TrEMBL record:
It is found in: Membrane. Keywords: Membrane, Transmembrane, Transmembrane helix. The lineage of its organism: Bacteria, Bacillati, Bacillota, Negativicutes, Selenomonadales. InterPro entries: CodB, Pur-cyt_permease, Thia_CytX. Signal peptide: none annotated. This is Cytosine permease. The chain crosses the membrane at residues 12-35, 41-62, 83-105, 121-138, 150-167, 187-207, 219-241, 247-272, 293-310, 316-336, 348-367, 373-392.
Length: 408
């Protein structure tokens, strides 16, 4: 075992539970309110069972091969293919960094306005971005590993408080559905959130002591945390018509503590986004230090949060699903079914895999319009996987490879 492979079950449980406790998860759960509470919870659980299961499989590859998430795509798509997905992943991670910072800044600003009459949204954005910057400087080992465990215990307490605020009057949860959202749409919004972590999870599971510890820790931590956050947002939107975390925290009379809660939940999640943006960048430019690149990404994400209004991110979530659902359908089929499990350094592009991926992207948007009962991600990944397995034997020569000089 390498000396770098030091992370066990509890580390992944804490890491991914902390990642799941975020404003974004609560707000997305609130979008499901028109479906009603019972159907909403059913959609949340179904979507997270599917999404978290796929997430664990992607993490398994990272532990087995000891490579980051985007490097693992070279198995199916080749070196240049992985560059394409690295660029797309950096863009989505910059988007997530900005979304998390701006959402937290809005919540913190609402609290500070009520407590002190202080209305400084830009200042809060810069401050929260600065804390993410500091969290990255502490590094994966030592400081962050211990601090993240402490943070998760605090966040667990926060989650209990939020639950007590939202569900103290459960009679309102019996209200009939308001309409305006189908079950399939709710499933899709539930499965997309774990799907957004697909290009990141192996960045962390590659350091695991064992495949089982990484799989169980990551899967349980994220599933429980994310479902819980979604259900809190769903309940708050149904009961109070407002899934905004700052409103719930103030309703619990937490006052100044609410600021710390908002900031802590944001930093533990946004750290993963910014750090993995650095790792993905390193897949294209390996000479760059991933931590330094992550710091630059944090600065860029903070600047985006200052200047661009991207809080309405439902379309952003759909765009993530359209790219990464068919991508990982191809990779998981290659790795677990076809059992091609090693990166071929000589393969630059696998055109067959790229064509199937592109068809999967097109199918995704078709299923979004069909409003299928199981959403778009689940059927698209199944169809893409079957299609890739069928055409795999016919497209083995559709590759661009390095030309090595023939030895004399």
């Amino acid at each position: 075992m390498s000396e770098d492979n030091t992370l066990g079950f509890k580390h992944y449980l804490f890491l991914w539970f902390g990642a799941a406790i975020s404003i974004a998860e609560i707000l997305t759960g609130g979008l499901l309110a028109p479906l009603g509470f019972q159907s909403g919870v059913a959609a949340i659980v179904l979507g997270h069972v599917a999404g978290t299961g796929i997430l664990v499989l992607a993490g398994w590859i990272g532990t087995q091969e000891r490579i980051p998430a985007l490097v693992s795509t070279r198995i199916s798509f080749g070196t240049y293919g992985s560059y394409l997905f690295s660029v797309l992943n950096v863009l989505q991670l910059l988007g997530w960094t900005a979304v998390m910072i701006i959402a937290a800044a809005r919540s913190a600003n609402e609290i500070s306005k009520l407590l002190w009459g202080l209305d400084q949204l830009s200042l809060w954005s810069i401050g929260i971005g600065g804390l993410v910057f500091l969290w990255i400087i502490l590094g994966r080992e030592g400081g962050v590993k211990k601090a993240n465990m402490l943070a998760v215990f605090l966040l667990l307490g926060i989650t209990v408080v939020l639950s007590s605020v939202v569900f103290k009057d459960s009679t309102a949860l019996l209200a009939p559905p308001a309409g305006g959202m189908s079950f399939g749409q709710a499933v899709e919004l539930s499965v997309i959130m774990p799907l957004s972590w697909l290009p990141l999870i192996a960045d962390y599971t590659r350091f695991a002591k064992s495949k089982a510890s990484a799989a169980w820790g990551s899967g349980l931590g994220y599933f429980v945390g994310s479902c819980w956050m979604y259900i809190i947002g769903l309940g708050a939107a149904i009961i109070a018509g407002n899934p905004e975390p700052s409103a719930m925290l103030l309703a619990a009379n937490l006052g100044l503590s609410a600021l710390g809660i908002i900031i802590l939940a944001t930093v533990t999640t946004t750290f993963l986004d910014a750090y993995s943006a650095g790792v993905s960048f390193g897949n294209v430019f390996p000479k760059f230090d991933e931590k330094r690149v992550a710091l630059v990404m944090t600065v860029i994400g903070t600047i985006i949060a200052l200047w661009v209004n991207i809080e309405q991110y439902e379309n952003f979530l759909i765009a993530i699903g359209s790219v990464f659902a068919p991508l990982f359908a191809v990779l998981l089929t290659e790795y677990f079914i076809i059992k091609n499990r090693k990166v071929q350094d000589e393969m630059l592009v696998n055109w067959g895999a790229l064509i199937v991926w592109a068809l999967g992207v097109g199918m995704y948007y078709q299923f979004i319009t069909l409003d299928f009962v199981f959403g778009a991600t689940i059927p698209v990944m199944v169809i893409t996987a079957v299609l890739y397995r069928i055409v795999w034997g016919y497209t083995q020569t559709w590759k661009s490879c390095k030309k090595y000089p023939i030895a004399s």
